[in-house]
Specification:
heterodimer; A: mainly alpha; 2 domains; globular; B: about 110 residues; mainly alpha; two-stranded antiparallel sheet; 5 helices; about 75% helix
Chain lengths: ~230, ~110
């Protein structure tokens, strides 16, 4: 583990991830508030952030818990929401595979939307594996620690935040910031458009099943569109 | 099953699923082994799932109440945030502008 650790790169990762906290702090608070209002105990609300460590999954789980959904529906919905980690893992794999298993196990745990979006450019630009891994660890560790603190803040002071602030709107904004750079080719635009129409059209489905169904419709649309365009890359 | 039990089982199960998904290609199996169809489907997962999360949070002003007109402050804020995100790839700026426009639009529409 120590053989691959670079202290300057670790703190560079921490420093470069700091601006992202403007979104992460309110998002983490919203997760804490959502879990508590769904009926979770403060300890369970904190455990969601510590163990799931995925804002999207935590929000979906909280909404479903509040709606009294069965365990299997909660797990299945979060599984579909978490499919994107497979994509991030695949994109990171060529860079992280040469590391020993402890590094890979730790870095995988802190692989989030923000950590991925914030560090993949560096991995592509530089082949200094030792520095890159430490850089990623720095950013990922900062996100994890701040996520816990923000969740705790949401649990403790969530009730005093006025509803008119609409703090929960940082959730779609955070994901919009990650989604927008993907909108570069026609097939992706088609996927986004189809998913958007489907998720609205299917909104009446119980237990937010519209999320899973619309997501799968969008993915299948993308595969069909690729096939019709004859892309096999 | 009590609600507390359901919550704890969900935390452990989803935590495990997320960790396995994150580890998948980094530590568990090589990308080469992936069936081509799965590979092509995965490519579209982030765009589809992020859209499925973002859109309902923007276009519904209350459960089941769809509003696609300028009277929906969240819609205006999201469009402004989209423009900012397309212009500058900055999560920070996107969130700051999005929240600022939301508050302004809410105030203006009141």
């Amino acid at each position: 583990m120590r053989a691959h650790f670079s202290r300057p790169a670790f703190f560079e990762g921490v420093r470069d991830m700091t601006p992202v906290l403007i979104g992460i702090v309110p998002f983490g608070m919203v997760c804490g508030i959502a879990a508590i209002s769904a009926g979770a105990s403060p300890l369970a609300a904190l455990a969601m952030s510590a163990i799931m460590f995925s804002g999207a999954a935590q929000i979906v789980a909280s909404q479903l818990i509040a709606a009294g959904a069965p365990l299997m529906v909660i797990i299945l919905s979060c599984l579909v929401v978490g499919l994107r980690f497979l994509v991030y893992s695949a994109a990171m794999a060529p860079y992280l595979r040469p590391l020993d298993h402890r590094w890979r196990n730790v870095l995988s745990f802190v692989l989030t939307d923000q950590a991925f979006a914030g560090t993949i450019q560096r991995f592509r630009a530089s082949d200094d594996l030792r520095a890159n891994a430490s850089y990623f660890l720095g950013g990922g560790a900062l996100l994890w620690v701040v996520w816990q603190v923000a969740t705790l803040a949401g649990i403790l002071v969530g009730q005093v935040i006025p509803a008119s602030w609409q703090l929960e709107f940082v959730v779609p904004l955070s994901f919009l910031a990650i989604l927008t750079p993907l909108l570069r080719d026609r097939v992706t635009l088609l996927v986004v458009f189809t998913t958007a129409v489907a998720v609205v059209a299917l909104d009446a489905m119980p237990m937010r099943l519209s999320l899973i169904c619309a997501g799968l419709i969008g993915i299948v649309t993308g595969v069909i569109a690729d096939t019709m365009r004859g892309e096999h890359d | 099953m009590t609600k507390e039990t359901t919550i704890w089982l969900a935390i452990l199960a989803v935590g495990a699923i997320n960790y396995v998904a994150r580890l998948s290609f980094i530590a568990l199996f090589a990308r080469r082994d992936m069936p081509p169809l799965l590979d092509r489907a995965l490519k579209h997962v982030p765009a589809a799932m992020l859209t499925a999360i973002v859109v309902p949070a923007v276009v519904f002003v209350a459960p089941g109440v769809l509003r696609l007109d300028p009277g929906n402050a969240k819609l205006i804020a999201a469009l402004a945030a989209l423009a900012v995100a397309a212009w500058r790839q900055s999560t920070t700026l996107t969130i700051v502008v999005g929240m600022a426009v939301l508050w302004l639009a809410q105030y203006a529409l009141r």
